[in-house]
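quick one before i forget lol
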Amino acid sequence: MLGKIECVRYCPVISIDDETDSGLIKARLHPYDDDKTINEIPYAFPLLPKMFYVKPRLLEGVFVFLAITNDGNSQRYYIGPVVSQENKLYMDKYLYADSFMNGAVSDPDIAPHTKPEVDGILPSSGDVMVRGRKNADIQITEDDVRIRSGVKIVNEMNHQDMEFNENDPAYIKLKYHTGGLIEKTINNVSYGGSGNVEVENQVNSTATIVADKINLLSNNSEEKEFVTTDRTDLITDKELQRAIKEAYKLPYGEKLVEILSAIIDAFIKHTHPYPMMPPCAANGIPELELKKTELLDNKKLLSDTVRIN
């Protein structure tokens, strides 16, 4: 039954064991729990809806709401974990996470955004973010969505130290370009025209995938099958290594057009001195041999970074 909130306390988490999968925790509520054992302390229920999931770790802090229901029973709810600053998502212990409160035992650290190496990691004031504790998050700005992994690199020895990854981040960026993005392309005029003409096209939306290796894998490929339903990782590192090794390399589009054009040109222009004799080594044949050496023999046709099955 509904009732009223008697008090709100900042409390340390002392147990996260939950046999019901309800998000229940136990937090020691001063002064009510000072003389109680952990078994005597009642569970607290999360106020965060189940559509969003985050569970406090042991020794982190939460806000506990102590409520008295209309039938006189007590009920506890919690919000947390309490994290004081942007660089402490991995773990902010109870004793220090209240640094922003009056009477805290410690002062806040220097604001993380003042450090140059952090530029590009933290959200702007108008952004919305879903954030993992370590190296992954989802950032929603006014015009784009970014699913990011490794853009922020957390120091393994000190998880409060972080820096922007300029070398090998992985992310998907979906953007709607307000006002349009102008794309300039060169159109080669042929069959009655001459020269190249610059053409401008307006692009309103883009989808960009960035990573060291990009695997586009189907669950029901008839060519190569990979396990993409691991219960813990979806696809394990071992299976990823196999995909990188065995999945098909995608060709570079322009390079593929080059060799196909050379094949077509040689086929159309080829001549024979007499029936049953090899074609003359002219009219496109040298160009085709050159493309074969450049793109096939020297393996310049296929991408080593994008693979499919």
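fyi DSSP finds four helices and 15 strands in the chain.
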